[in-house]
Design goal:
Chain lengths: ~110, ~110
DNA sequence: TTGCTATACCTAGCAGTGCAAGGCATCCAG
DNA sequence: CTGGATGCCTTGCACTGCTAGGTATAGCAA
């Protein structure tokens, strides 16, 4: 199933923050985690993720650290900061508000 | 709570279609219905709704009929068509896919 | 050694569009 | 006769998502 771009846009920040809430992580792995969590339904491109990560850092929601993996590769790990936790809580609340609104009609329409 | 514009964008079409699934309706009333369903959390402007309604009609998802209300006002009623029902089912499935993805992380993160 | 795939990160630039802002008309209450 | 609620419509451009392109290294196979 191809997901509408609006839906992808709406879920990007909450998903990234949620994944970072699981623990520090780096860009490439975040994309794979999204694939896992969505059971293959969501396929992010790196070109859409990195700008989001940079934005989150600029706004104090996450901080980043370069690290060397055992493999020898350089990875930029992102960690959630308090501001990011607040943003996540807010985004979660927003999502649930809309979800409840939709669910209300779906229930009425006997879904 | 102010809703992120991405989230509003993502929910517009599914919400409009869901409301029309409840029964034929017209623009102005749809905006009020959204306010009701969201318990005041979502406030749509007509400037964002009408173009969506027109798009849905152009694409055969709904059809419209001008009617005269008892009040004497002219209203343009929209009714859901089979194509619109299909789109709604698809949008609903998409929404639930993303919702499940988010819920999975939230559950893991012990929300 | 050469080439291919997976890993890993970055950003410029512009196509595409959401929606604010503005316009029009009618009904009713005060 | 004024203002607010009802009711519909469209233009235009500020904004931005994401494509497309760039860099680099590890590991493997031919």
């Amino acid at each position: 199933m191809k997901l509408a771009k609006e839906l992808v846009a709406a879920s990007t920040v909450p998903l990234v923050l949620s994944i970072l809430e699981e623990g520090e992580n780096y860009g490439y792995a975040i994309i794979q985690r999204v694939r896992e969590l969505s059971q293959g339904e969501m396929e992010w491109t790196d070109g859409m993720l990195y700008p989001v990560l940079h934005w989150l850092e600029e706004n104090g929601c996450v901080k980043s650290e370069w690290r060397e993996a055992e493999s020898g590769r350089r990875r930029k790990y992102y960690l959630l900061r308090p501001t990011g936790r607040k943003l996540l809580a807010d985004q979660k609340a927003q999502w649930l508000t809309v979800h409840e609104t939709l669910r209300r009609t779906w229930r009425l329409n006997h879904g």
